[in-house]
Design a protein that fits this description.
It contains 3 helices and 3 strands; from the N terminus they run βααββα. The chain is α+β, with helices and mostly antiparallel strands and about 70 residues long. The chain has a single domain, classed as Multidrug-efflux Transporter Regulator, Chain: A, Domain 2. A 3-stranded antiparallel β-sheet has the order 1-3-2. The radius of gyration is 12 Å and the shape is globular. This is AlpA family phage regulatory protein. It comes from Leisingera daeponensis.
Length: about 70
Amino acid sequence: MAAANQILARESTAAKMLDMPLKEFRALVAAGSLPKPVKIGGKVERWSVKQLEAISSGTMLSEDFEW
């Protein structure tokens, strides 16, 4: 059986994906420089791996997306 591709990431994983401390990641999310998480079931917050990859590759720019 093939392994599933990860589509969502916890906050700590999202910060690691962008190679930044959690405190800095949180500040950038709060400032609107990084996307807010999606909420699952109203409580669980996760970040889109595709969005994080697009940010790190430079293909997603803040002026191109509303978050």
